[in-house]
Every structure is written in structure tokens, then in C-alpha cells.
Inverse folding.
């Protein structure tokens, strides 16, 4: 039985809270806040009142997540000329090559491309890395993280424990940089 989604609003101490209720043939409640939208999926048997009470009971958490999402809003990057991107990202590669030299990683060919969903990728069999031109607009420490990430893929082709261990040894704060990078739009 398909039940159409409902947009509902409940009163809370901090004001009205609007959410989308989706009923599914599931056992558990699932509450998500995405792009500041509140999404609740619930079992088919759940009444509107039960759903409203559930949202009201989680209101403080919802408002906290929405506030955090506003603070970490993604920043679009201004496009720049390709020659400038090449100069900036080549410098990042130069900074990171000495870090991996002890591991036997040879200088890869650097290619640039506009990408919509990733910052870079490694083609270890062909000996080159491709970086997103938008990366040139990011802070230098984030450029270094992406370049090192791609260079480490020459040793470890997946993101398994060995990859993470090598990243941690070479750049102990890599996971902080990765998290910061998520605030930029590729």
C-alpha cells in the first residue's frame, strides 16, 4: 500500500517546525536533516499524531543540526583561467612529491579537468593523476591533501586500512582537511 508523502508542521518551543512524513513498510523510524529539510520515514501503521509527537520530541536535536548545516554551508569557487589552475596545482604536486619520495612513487603526469563530483582521481596504471580545476581556488593545505591522496593511490588503490595508515603517517591531519574540503563545491 502506497501512502503519499505529507508535509506537516508542528509547534515547538522555538517555533513551527515543518517536516516531510513518508510512510513505508519498515519497522523503524528514520529521521534525517538534509539541506536543512527534515525528513521522517515511519512504519505504515504510524498515525499523524504519533509522527508529530516524535518530531516534537526531537525538536532540539533538529534545530541544532539545522544550525550546524547553516554554519557549514558550501562555498562555490570562482572559475579561473586554466593556465593559472595548472600553475597552482603543479605547485601543490611539487610540494607533495618530497613527502612521498621515500615510498618510491614516481612523478606522475598531471592532468586537469572540470569535474562535478570529485576533486581528483588517480590512474596508477597509466601513471597520471587528474585534478579538478576548481581545486585551484581552494586553500593550499586542501590542495596538498587532495594531491597527496591521489599520490598515495599509486601504492594503495582503495581506501582501505593501509591507505588510511599511509595517509596518517604522511599527513596526520588529513581527515580534518578532508572534512574542511566538503565545505567547498567542486
Amino acid at each position: 500500500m502506497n501512502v503519499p508523502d505529507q508535509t506537516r508542521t508542528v509547534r515547538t518551543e522555538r517555533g513551527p517546525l515543518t517536516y516531510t512524513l513518508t510512510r513505508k513498510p519498515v519497522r523503524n523510524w528514520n529521521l534525517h536533516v538534509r539541506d536543512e529539510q527534515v525528513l521522517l520515514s515511519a512504519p505504515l501503521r504510524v498515525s499523524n499524531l504519533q509522527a508529530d509527537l516524535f518530531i516534537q520530541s526531537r525538536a532540539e536535536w533538529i534545530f541544532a543540526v539545522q544550525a550546524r548545516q547553516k554554519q557549514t554551508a558550501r562555498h562555490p569557487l570562482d572559475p579561473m583561467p586554466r593556465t593559472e589552475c595548472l600553475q597552482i596545482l603543479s605547485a601543490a604536486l611539487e610540494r607533495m612529491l618530497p613527502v612521498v619520495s621515500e615510498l618510491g612513487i614516481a612523478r606522475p603526469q598531471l592532468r586537469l579537468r572540470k569535474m562535478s563530483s570529485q576533486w581528483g582521481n588517480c590512474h596508477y596504471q597509466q601513471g597520471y593523476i587528474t585534478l579538478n580545476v576548481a581545486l585551484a581556488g581552494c586553500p593550499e593545505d586542501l590542495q596538498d591533501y587532495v594531491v597527496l591522496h591521489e599520490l598515495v593511490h599509486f601504492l594503495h588503490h582503495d581506501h582501505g586500512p593501509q591507505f588510511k595508515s599511509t595517509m596518517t603517517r604522511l599527513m596526520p591531519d588529513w581527515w580534518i582537511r578532508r572534512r574542511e574540503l566538503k565545505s567547498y563545491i567542486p
